[in-house]
Amino acid sequence: MSFTVLAIETSCDETAAAVVQLQDAPPAGGLPQLRLRSNVVHSQQDQHALYGGVVPEVASREHLAKLQGLVRQAVAPVGGLAAIDGIAVSRGPGLVGALLVGVQLAKGLALALERPWLGIHHLEGHLCAALLTERPPSFPHLALIASGGHTQFVAVRAFGDYALLGGTRDDAAGEAFDKGGKLLGLGYPAGAAVDALAQTGDPTALRLPRALPKDDAACSFSGVKSALARHLAQAGPPTPRRRADLCASLQQAICEVLVNKALRLAVRHRLPGIVVAGGVAANSLLRRLLAAGCEAAGLWHCAPPLQLCTDNAAMVGAAGALRLAAGERSAYRLSVRAR
Fold first, then answer.
1. Is the dihedral of CA 284, 244, 253, 123 positive or negative?
2. Model-wide pTM > 0.85
């Protein structure tokens, strides 16, 4: 026996659908086994790159155009919608119009199929992406959620039992990557481009600020962006070689802060391991620094595969399957929540 969930994600500029199955027999002392049957994502990055950032109206219209086809594609491996036992969908945080597209489709399908539906917190989805890996993390652990809109340190005591320990006071880590990359002429989104160029750059070429060094629970990345902008205003447009050095310096400043604070929080709160989640979790330096830091500190670490770091429906399905199988349901009057 298994519980099969259709998951939908439309919180920003990825349109996504997935099917996740929850197996009946959990391992001793652990969560039931989750099996990812399908995971399809349509990225809107090319459309929004024309404007240098996400345009909410464009995102909503693209979700409307693509979502139904992606749902049909996602349920095909399990035999279609008739095989679905429940529906999970991101209800926030995110762009209101974009979220409404996913939630309204989830409600309509639930009503037509006479199946339960559940609105899922987008950040809980990111926390649950690691549960779909070959070696899922144990509880408790520290989770670092780092994306374009969020940077948070969360104590995860068990599934559904979370304590926010701290986070950014201004720009999120992904936002700092994107804004810094835009200053360097890399377009939008810039995170992957910064990572690629940094591979051949010198991370010591420009010393960028590491804010709030004495506060393990708080981050600030606005100063990194401002310092880079001041440097470029004084030095002028960089050569290709200098651009690689600046990318490496920017990446080092952001990732070093994230990893050092995560390690100190895990030790202070006696959490035996660290899970990294969100789009910035795909950054190669962040993954290397976290692996090395955890090994030195005697902690385990878990970083989901790259396709489960950026926004996707599989992570929503992981959270939704566990909650729906436990009997949780959302009422049809429930709507989206941007923040």
1. negative
2. yes
